[in-house]
Design brief:
Layout: H1 5-15, H2 19-22, E1 49-60, E2 67-81, E3 84-100, E4 105-119, E5 126-141, E6 152-153, E7 156-157, E8 174-186, E9 190-199, E10 204-205, E11 215-216, E12 219-231, E13 234-245, E14 248-262, E15 269-278, E16 282-291, E17 294-300, E18 302-303, H3 309-312, E19 315-324
């Protein structure tokens, strides 16, 4: 039955009737892709800069080309206030791509971000960050790699034959803006943050069938996180995110235990083991390792949806890599996403 799913996915791409293509990419390790969560997070954390890469492969099954999502970002602190270094201007660049149908479908976006963080008290325990950004997005469909019913002949599909689909067209690229705000509290033993962000405040058309009603709707995020020491060698990290996009909304929440294996002058070596839950979709175990300024993480989505047996048989993996600058300051609690 799985082999027929690729035809359903194709219809979803062209008509926009499949919710999965009407939504932005969803990362199980959303915490490891902060610029996709809130532009106010650009430059946050203890490092001067960080490079983040995520690779998500979903719908893996025999006879089906998976949908691959790649996110690559670079962000950091651009300028610090001379007499108060906890106040800074941050910035970041983000590239995001969805690729499916063996490369016949590609959706790309390029984003640039500026953020500002200010301390709200003399002890630098309370802080407020705001972020603004712009995105250029395009969607490419290579119709030469796709087969249509009108191209079926006695010898099989002949792609040199006309598609007999008069409404097929290219999808126009567009530019959109986004913004966010985050409040943070932190001391030597614990830290907390909560924020909200919005992406694509203006509804933009995105149709391969010249359909003016097919749009990319705005997306809104609300997120929060908490970190504390459970013991000198054990750290608790928790976070959650709520996402609303058109009529679709979901939440993901979970926790990570950071096992400190070794202390050093740069960054401690930490073994991370976590578990997250995405509402009505998946339970997501996480395994990661931080060594000096390098960090890797791996998740596997255990499907919990009972509405479709085909989706339940598909596999989803996600890998993350974070490289931080060797210099660090201002955040003593080890955390996989800061």
């Amino acid at each position: 039955m799985v082999k027929y799913l690729k035809y359903f996915l194709l219809i979803g791409i062209l008509s926009g009737e499949a919710d999965v293509f009407a939504q932005d990419p969803v990362f199980s390790q959303f915490y490891s892709s902060p610029l996709n969560v809130n532009p106010a997070l650009a430059g946050n954390g203890s490092a001067d800069w960080r490079f983040v890469a995520n690779r998500r492969s979903q719908w893996i099954a025999d006879g089906l080309d998976p949908l691959n999502t790649t996110s690559v970002s670079l962000d950091g602190k651009l300028f610090r206030q001379k007499d108060k270094e906890t106040n800074y201007i941050g910035g970041g660049l983000l590239f995001l791509q969805d690729q499916g149908m063996a490369g016949a479908y590609k959706s790309n976006s390029f984003s640039f971000i500026l953020s500002s963080h200010v301390s709200l008290d003399d002890n630098d325990n309370n802080g407020l960050s705001i972020g603004l950004g712009g995105t250029y997005s395009n969607t490419l469909i290579d119709y030469s790699q796709l087969s249509f019913a009108s191209q079926l002949s006695s010898s099989g599909f002949n792609r040199s034959l006309p598609t007999s689909e008069p409404f097929l067209s290219t999808i126009k690229p567009y530019f959109a803006v986004f913004a966010g705000v985050t409040y943070t509290y932190g001391d030597e033993n614990q830290s907390f943050d909560i924020g909200a962000s919005g992406y694509r405040f203006m509804k933009t058309n995105k149709s391969a069938l010249s359909d003016p009603t097919q749009i990319d709707p705005p997306r809104y995020n609300v997120h929060a996180g908490y970190q504390t020491y459970l013991s000198p060698r054990m750290v608790l990290n928790t976070n959650a995110i709520y996402v609303k996009e058109s009529t679709a909304n979901s939440y993901t929440l979970g926790l990570n235990l950071g096992h400190i294996l070794e202390e050093n002058d740069l960054q401690p070596t930490v073994l991370n083991t976590g578990l997250w839950y995405r509402a009505n979709e998946a339970i997501i175990p996480y395994l990661g390792l931080s060594y000096r300024n390098f960090q890797v993480g791996l998740t596997y989505d255990i499907n919990t949806s009972t509405g479709n047996s085909v989706y339940g048989s598909l596999k989803t993996y996600e890998f993350s890599l974070i490289i931080r600058s060797p210099q660090s300051s201002g955040h003593a609690i080890p955390c996989p996403w800061k």
